[in-house]
């Protein structure tokens, strides 16, 4: 809910976000999305649902979304 349809179904990779670098991304290194990818500040994307807390994984390979009831969803980037 509240996420684009391509983000709702984890598909065959599970909760793994695959980021492909392209010439367009390289050419726009100062865009907000490129900065998030370069610095691995994933929570700046606001990936969690309203009411959930976002935390970076220690090695910045992804993030966790913590629901008010304590359930934690982890997403990794490869």
How are the strands of the biggest sheet laid out side by side?
Answer: 1-4-3-2
Arithmetic mean pLDDT: 74
* Poorly predicted runs of 5 or more residues: 1-14, 21-27
What count of structural domains? 1
Distance between the termini: 24 Å
> What percent strand?
15-25%
Helix content: 10-25%
Which structural class is indicated by helix and strand composition? alpha+beta
Backbone shape:
globular
User: Taking Cα atoms only, what radius of gyration do you get, to the nearest Å?
Assistant: 13 Å
> What's the total count of β strands?
4
What do you see in this structure?
This is Protein FAM19A5. Belongs to the TAFA family. It comes from Piliocolobus tephrosceles (Ugandan red Colobus). GO terms for molecular function: G protein-coupled receptor binding; receptor ligand activity. Keywords: Signal. There is one protein chain. This protein is of the alpha+beta class and 78 residues long. The protein has one domain (5-77). 22% of the residues lie in helices and 22% in strands. The protein is built from 3 helices and 4 strands, in the order H-E-H-H-E-E-E. A 4-stranded mixed sheet has the order 1-4-3-2, with no helix packed on it. Strand 3 and strand 4 (72-77) form a beta hairpin. The chain is globular. The protein starts with a helix and ends with a strand.
